[in-house]
Design brief:
The protein has 18 helices and two strands. It is an all-alpha fold. The protein folds into two domains: 187 residues, Orthogonal Bundle (Clc chloride channel); 184 residues, Orthogonal Bundle (Clc chloride channel), CATH 1.10.3080.10. The chain has a two-stranded parallel sheet. Helix 1 packs parallel to helix 4, helix 1 crosses helix 9 and helix 2 packs antiparallel against helix 11.
């Protein structure tokens, strides 16, 4: 007699139940600490804005954070890149100290006036807390990957109030052109529950109003494609600039705590001399203003430079909210040239520059719909995908892998973005080296 086989659906029920419980627990932890973080950040920002003189203490604050990381946080200094590497190649549980270190470092950075974001902090805290459950639930390496991804989703969703984008962002950010569906259910549960937990603690996210969306037509599509090209190039400029400055600073300043100290001097001096207080911190008021009225056309560049200097010299935080600022103000500036309403193009720029810098067009399209309404979806998708393509194989997360090339080429799959950049530099040096060797050969052969 042939044995009876259980239907596949019955076999999946334990999986669904297991990850429903685990993802909800992760969301409770990540949502709660993200709420504490956001409320603390509001207090720090309000105090800094009421005491502008505190910007002169930024170098000291930077040195203090750098020294603490140098003494206690060497193993977790990789931040988001460490988490991405652990998902791709699980080795050991992320030390719990990552959560308090990045939390304190980010609040101090904002309190004294660095231009940094907040997503990196929430993602790192969520993933770190999630990873502490590895031993408790006896997770296998493959399950640990899902655990980390659920923690990242919970942190991202809670800090921005975008549960769908938070889940898809993590599925998409690990490898360019390739998504992981094995973590789909845990990531969505973690994102949705973490958002609700954060709201339950009294956090209120900023509302952005874009008004009416222009109809889909030949000109509106063409105009958004043109804007998307610019958004992608600016996203590439941001990512390349931050990585390049970080490499230069590390080369010339050997002692890590001195890097943010020097960066703090540069930022504080520039803020005072240029009266550029609106370019530090998160810049939420300026982002809101970009949806309401025309802003200075150079605002996006000012925020870009201040953020590159802050992150490139070692201040803690994230890149995403500054990218929102850069994208919204750039879209506002481009709107008159492309004959589109500035709230609409500010909204598309808000997500599209982030899409180009992080290589996450699907997540950012969902984010636009969650923040601005479903009507913006088609145009936001065009802007985000165009920016994604035009940013090339660069990105703010150098541990991100190349899953599939953006265009037909010979880029090997599985390469880290940082390895790809190094290969390109070696290829550029190769022709010069060959010319030199040929020249030397001709010289030696000549009578």
């Amino acid at each position: 007699m042939r044995p009876l086989h259980r239907p596949e659906q019955l076999k999946l029920l334990p999986y669904v139940g297991k990850w429903l419980v685990i993802a909800s627990l992760i969301a409770l932890l990540a949502g709660s600490i993200s709420a504490f973080f956001l409320l603390s950040l509001d207090q720090a920002t309000a105090w800094r804005e009421a005491h502008r003189w505190v910007i002169w203490l930024l170098p000291v604050a930077g040195f203090g954070v750098g020294w603490i990381y140098h003494r206690l946080g060497k193993t977790v200094d990789g931040g988001n890149n460490l988490i991405i590497d652990e998902i791709h190649e699980p080795k050991k549980v992320i030390p719990l100290r990552m959560a308090p270190l990045v939390l304190g470092g980010t609040i101090i950075s904002h309190l004294f006036g660095a231009s940094v974001g907040r997503e990196g902090t929430a993602v790192q805290m969520g993933a770190t807390l999630a990873d502490q459950l590895t031993h408790a639930f006896r997770m296998k390496p493959e399950e640990r990957r899902i655990l980390l991804m659920a923690g990242m989703s919970a942190g991202f969703a809670a800090v921005f109030g975008t549960p769908l984008a938070g889940a898809v962002f993590v599925l998409e950010v690990l490898a360019i052109g390739r998504m992981r569906y094995d973590a789909l259910f845990p990531c969505f549960v973690a994102g949705v529950v973490a958002d609700q937990v954060c709201l339950a603690w009294g956090v209120r996210h900023t509302h952005y109003a874009i008004g009416a969306v222009v109809p889909i037509g030949f000109w509106s599509v063409l105009a958004v494609v043109a804007a998307g090209i610019v958004f992608g190039l600016v996203g590439m400029l941001f990512a390349t600039g931050a990585h390049s400055l970080s490499a230069v600073v590390k080369r010339f300043i050997a002692y890590p705590p001195l890097r943010p100290f020097v960066g703090g001097i540069v930022v504080a001096s520039a803020v005072y001399l240029l009266d550029a207080y609106h370019y530090i911190g998160l810049g939420i008021p300026d982002i809101v203003r970009a949806f309401q009225e025309p802003v200075a056309p150079w605002d996006f560049f000012g925020k870009l430079v201040f953020t590159i200097v802050s992150l490139g010299t070692g201040f803690k935080g994230g890149e995403v909210t500054p990218l929102f600022y850069i994208g919204a103000t750039l879209g506002n500036a481009l709107a008159p040239l492309l004959h589109l309403p500035f709230p609409l193009l500010a909204g598309i720029g808000f997500v599209a520059v982030f899409s180009g810098a992080a290589n996450t067009p699907i997540a950012t399209t969902l984010m636009a719909m969650e923040l601005f309404g479903a009507d913006i979806g088609p145009l936001a998708a065009i802007g985000c995908i165009t920016a994604y393509l035009l940013s090339g194989h660069t990105g703010i997360y150098h541990a991100q892998r190349v899953g599939r090339s953006k265009y037909r080429g010979s880029i090997p799959e599985g390469l880290r973005i940082s390895d790809l950049a190094r290969l390109r530099k070696e290829e550029q040096r190769a022709p010069t080296k060959e010319k030199k060797e040929t020249s030397e050969s001709k010289t030696s052969d000549s009578p």
